[in-house]
Amino acid sequence: MQVNEKEFKPTIVAFCCNWCSYAGADLAGTNRLNYPADVKIIRVPCSCRVNPMFILRAFQRGADGVIMCGCHPGDCHYTTGNYYARRRMTLLFSMLDYLGIERERTRVEWVSAAEGAKFAATMNEFVETVTKLGENKRLEDLRCKEK
Amino acid sequence: MQRIGVFVCWCGSNIAATVDVEAVSEALKSEPGVVFSTNYQYMCSEAGQNMIKDAIKEHNLTGVVICSCSPRMHEATFRKTVQGAGINPYMVEIANIREQCSWIHKDKQTGTEKAIILGKAAIAKVHLNAPLTAGESPVVKRALVIGGGIAGIQTALDIAEAGFDVDIVETKPTIGGKMTQIDKTFPTLDCAACILTPKMVDCAQNEKIHIYSYSEVTAVKGFVGNFTVSIKKKARYVDTTKCTGCGVCTEKCPVKNVPNEFNLGMNNRRAIYIPFAQAVPKVATIDADYCNMLKNGKCGVCSKVCTAGAIDYKQQDEIIEEKYGAIVAATGFNPIKLDNFDEFAYSQSKDVITSLEFERLTNAAGPTSGQLLRPSDGKHPHTIVFVQCVGSRDTSGCGKPYCSKICCMYTAKHAMLTREKYPDTDVYVFYIDVRTPGKNFDEFYRRAVEDYNVHYIKGMVGKVAPRADGTLDVQASDLISNEQLHISADLVVLAAAIEPDKSARPLATMLTASMDTNDFFTEAHAKLRPVESPTAGVFLSGTCQGPKDIPETVSQASAAAAKVIGLLCKDKLTCNPCVAHSDEMLCNGCSSCEKVCPYGAITYSDKEFRMPDRTTAIRRVAAVNEAVCQGCGACTVACPSGAMDLKGFSNKQIMAEVDAICK
Amino acid sequence: MQGKMIARAKELLQNGTVNRVIGWKAGDFAYDITPAVFSSAEELDAGFVYNDFCGANFSKYLVKESRKEGKILVFLKPCDTYSFNQLTKEHRIIRDNIYVVGVPCDGKTDGETLKLKGITGITGIKTEGDSFVVDTLYGEKTIAKADALPERCLSCKSKKHVAYDELLGEDGEVCESNRFDMVEKLEAMSSEERFAFWRGELSRCIRCNACRNVCPACTCERCVFDNDNSGIAQKAAADSFEENMFHIIRAFHVAGRCTDCGECSRVCPQNIPLHLLNRKFIKDINEFYGEFQAGEDTETRAPLNIFDTEDVEPSIVYEKGGN
């Protein structure tokens, strides 16, 4: 089926740490800062709770983009969690890129509890990027039938 | 299969305006496991909560999904509600359809669709929720205060007053801190020693308080209610149980050229010394860097003159371990080093001094016995220039970006006292702003200007140049009259910014407490929990949390004490039940989880197992101390076999949410 | 070397140092050599071989074997010792129950490779200089090592033993390896080309699990793919995506722990170059966090279990150029 780019609404999963980014998302709401409804947030205690499996799972189930948000490095509620998350995600994203999956579909952003505006701006920008890329077919198609 | 009830909140019009709440509760009704679904104007109201309780009973619900505001707002409320109706509080999930839906979407259809998906994700998660029970851990009824300045002293006195044992660890040979070096205090001009030393004596005499002076914390293990702290008692080469503080040794010691830190190096002390007359504990300490006996074994005078036999050249550092229920950081501040501020000629001229040095010069127990004399020639200065904000509010990178808060007031005090005692002196104060928020503070400042004729000039000093005749050429700009000024000064006093003590950062690492970029301890909440660290059981007292004057420090010290007392009053603490858990049958024993745990909550042991093939095997497996674990989940990802999982945020729960969202 | 090894094994069995020996055993054909445990001199004489077909890495077998009664003798080639160290570091093997004899290695070939080069009816093999001399039913055939060695041996990273109780023969040095050449080539491709490359390779996967089963880093008590509670358990793949997920997750699980022994690619019946996934992680780790060789010692923390506050941001993936 041909997807009309104008009608295409991406599915975006955002993993947000409870202490900074989820609070930042709440603040965006409190300040009525608009960002597309395509973004759905999953609350995790810390960015270090995000298992690469979750990100792959999201893609497997049809997500077009996955973003992970955590406290700024140095500000982790659990002191060091986001440092580990940073290494894990850097390597995972690099691997997805290596496999030929568009690297723009994955992203990490550090958003503090005070950065409601940054949260909204980040989501607007990410949705725009993913919308331009269109439907995420590659991951599903990696092993697919010959054309 | 769970029996789930869904409750959609309107939040007045906050949600209902952009989300069709009726459509949401209707759509979620057909989700698997949902046996009841409704909506109501204010779910958090008493009527709303009763509606939930009634539905739980009527429909025999095992799980509850509330579509409402952020869980950060009312998760605790609704957990209590369902508990009241007899189901486990952790069987509630919140779908955030206000902050993350109704408030950001203007289109009702969009908002409604998204709210339904968020509701579905919460339902999917609740399906996999399990009842969680919070564990309990005992509380050691003893507190540790790190730092023996006015903050630490006040905290310790208040805790002791409530009947709990408290230890003070102070790195210096005496408690008292910076306040001992201050001459008079604003805005009342009380003598600092007169109000501080009685408190120091109270500490020494209170049987609930134990002072570890000349000691340092070297390791902290454990968690709230149950810390184990290693304290290094540095060798002072004097038996404190025998020393009577008579001071004969400090007069007979032949090494006379040791810079006296109490007077900021403006005069000398001996190699064996008592920091000042009112020191607590009042015992001598040998400075190993200068003592001839310790350096080359030649001297021994102090030992000969000590009638109490207290001198012990063979004394070693000693490390002791103590258990505490709560720890208070009260590590205080120091003025910054002025190496980056060459323009003020601090290192070139003896007559350019810091404000703290000025305090010593005006103090009766100081190097000049309270006579305000120029350090260079001992003459009375006739023109004094005070420079404010030296290194404070400095975004150039040389100093500190923050306001040090106390400088405006102590400079007004210095200027006023100088004019009062030496009316023939001209006093200039250069400032960016004069900040005087505080009880009787602005009145105090105005007295300095109006009654004492101190010349306040808005503007910064650009350069201080020592002249051949011994005066100082102060070049400055007056921003009000827009003039360049040259003042020929006899003495220049710099209000150096204050910064947290250097010991604070390593201590924060030991405590796993967080710090900001300026090395001030971070509060658990900047407004609502200002005396607690985010690390449970660690409290903050005084300037280690941010710049403060004495009254503020004392209030915070007492507030920290109140929090500590509140903790120590409890016999047991309830733990967060959303903690990591290791499935021993899956554990490889690889130690990955242990390495990434910031709390040291994971330990390994060899355990005997009955294997599926009916043999027994000894395997190395991980176990989580639930009282220590804070539930971050770092271990769950480090674990390759998936043996580590997090209760309340399990792999399966999060993947169920992912599935529900991506469907 | 085979003779020396058997002699030493017999001595160690006889003097009671060990009660078993793990080594290579001749199969039905000269090239299908299998790992085996020998517990007597007679068994050693009957079946123990060591020749240019003995590629198998024994480290992983020690996870189970070192938990049995008594001490076991293992012969390890240089690259095997890295896996051995890694497993020791992760407490997966009990070092005290193992006696390691390091043996030199100049690269191991296998029957499949030779057959592809047209050498069939193989009955034996020996090394002569830079060539293998293969005995076949049709007479002696000579083939240059450069043509007969698998990629992992051609780009050998080390001929130095990093763990052993004793060595037979000379120890070698860490080699200058060009093992990242192919990764670099892939990185230089466009996203579409890379996608096409991997689609071509991974589409052949039959999910036989051979790569996982042989991998010395995959020693989990129970693999997440076999665990119904993990949320990602699969026997056969339900959809095409799961194939890829399997390989990405597997590579991620061994990231920072993989020693690049190359066993995964050696055993893949579909000849998928799986080592290229692992090497990508190794290369990234080296570039982002400093040179790291898993298994070099038993102390250094794995790169994913440590951090530096100044680590690169994940956005480096977008910034590094290319397509």
What does this structure look like?
The complex is a heterotrimer of chains A (147), B (663) and C (323). Chain A is of the alpha/beta class. Helix content of chain A is 40%, strand content 16%. In chain A, helix 1 crosses helix 4 (116-133). Chain A starts with 11 loop residues before the first strand and ends in a 6-residue tail after the last helix. In chain A, 71% of the residues are buried. Chain B has 663 residues and is of the alpha/beta class. Chain B folds into five domains: 4-127, Rossmann fold; 142-234 and 317-332 and 501-568, FAD/NAD(P)-binding domain (3-Layer(bba) Sandwich), CATH 3.50.50; 248-305, no CATH class; 335-498, 3-Layer(bba) Sandwich (FAD/NAD(P)-binding domain), CATH 3.50.50; 580-647, 2-Layer Sandwich (Alpha-Beta Plaits). Chain B is 28% helix and 25% strand. In chain B, strands 10-7-6-18-29 form a five-stranded parallel beta sheet. In chain B, strands 20-27-21-22-23 form a five-stranded parallel beta sheet. A four-stranded parallel beta sheet of chain B has the order 2-1-3-4, with helices on both faces. Chain B is globular, with a radius of gyration of 32 Å. Chain B starts with a strand and ends with a helix. With 323 residues, chain C is of the alpha/beta class. Chain C folds into three domains: 1-108 and 157-177, no CATH class; 111-149; 179-323, no CATH class. Chain C contains 14 helices and nine strands. In chain C, the strands form two sheets. In chain C, strands 1, 2, 3, 4, 5 and 9 form a six-stranded mixed beta sheet that branches. Chain C has a three-stranded antiparallel beta sheet with strand order 6-7-8. The model of chain C has no long low-confidence stretch (mean pLDDT 90). The chains are: A alpha/beta (147), B alpha/beta (663), C alpha/beta (323). Chains in contact: A-B, A-C, B-C. At the A-B interface, helix 1, strand 2, helix 2 and helix 3 of A face helix 4, helix 5, helix 17 and helix 18 of B.
Keywords:
heterotrimer, A: 147 residues, alpha/beta, Rossmann fold, four-stranded parallel beta sheet, 5 helices, 4 strands, 40% helix, 16% strand, globular, disordered C terminus, B: 663 residues, FAD/NAD(P)-binding domain, 5 domains, five-stranded parallel beta sheet, 18 helices, 28% helix, 25% strand
Q: How is the topology of this model organized?
A:
The complex is a heterotrimer of chains A (147), B (663) and C (323).
Chain A: E1 12-17, H1 21-30, E2 39-44, H2 52-60, E3 65-70, H3 81-98, E4 106-110, H4 116-133, H5 138-141
Parallel strand pairs in A: 1-2, 1-3, 3-4
Helix pairs in contact in A: 1-4
Chain B: E1 4-9, H1 21-29, E2 34-40, H2 46-59, E3 63-68, H3 71-84, E4 92-96, H4 98-102, H5 108-127, E5 136-138, E6 142-146, H6 150-161, E7 165-169, E8 184-185, E9 190-191, H7 192-205, E10 209-212, E11 215-223, E12 226-233, H8 248-252, E13 258-259, E14 268-269, E15 272-273, E16 285-286, H9 292-296, H10 301-305, E17 318-324, E18 326-329, E19 333-335, E20 352-354, H11 355-362, E21 383-390, H12 407-421, E22 426-431, H13 441-451, E23 455-458, E24 461-466, E25 472-478, E26 483-489, E27 491-496, E28 498-500, H14 504-511, E29 538-540, H15 550-568, E30 572-574, E31 580-582, H16 592-596, E32 602-610, E33 616-624, H17 634-638, E34 644-646, H18 651-662
Parallel strand pairs in B: 1-2, 1-3, 3-4, 6-7, 6-18, 7-10, 18-29, 20-27, 21-22, 21-27, 22-23
Antiparallel strand pairs in B: 5-30, 8-9, 11-12, 12-17, 13-14, 15-16, 19-28, 24-25, 25-26, 31-34, 32-33
Chain C: H1 2-14, E1 20-25, E2 34-38, H2 41-47, E3 48-49, H3 61-65, E4 72-76, H4 78-89, E5 98-102, H5 111-116, E6 122-128, E7 131-136, E8 139-144, H6 145-148, H7 151-154, E9 166-167, H8 181-188, H9 191-202, H10 210-214, H11 240-253, H12 263-267, H13 275-289, H14 316-319
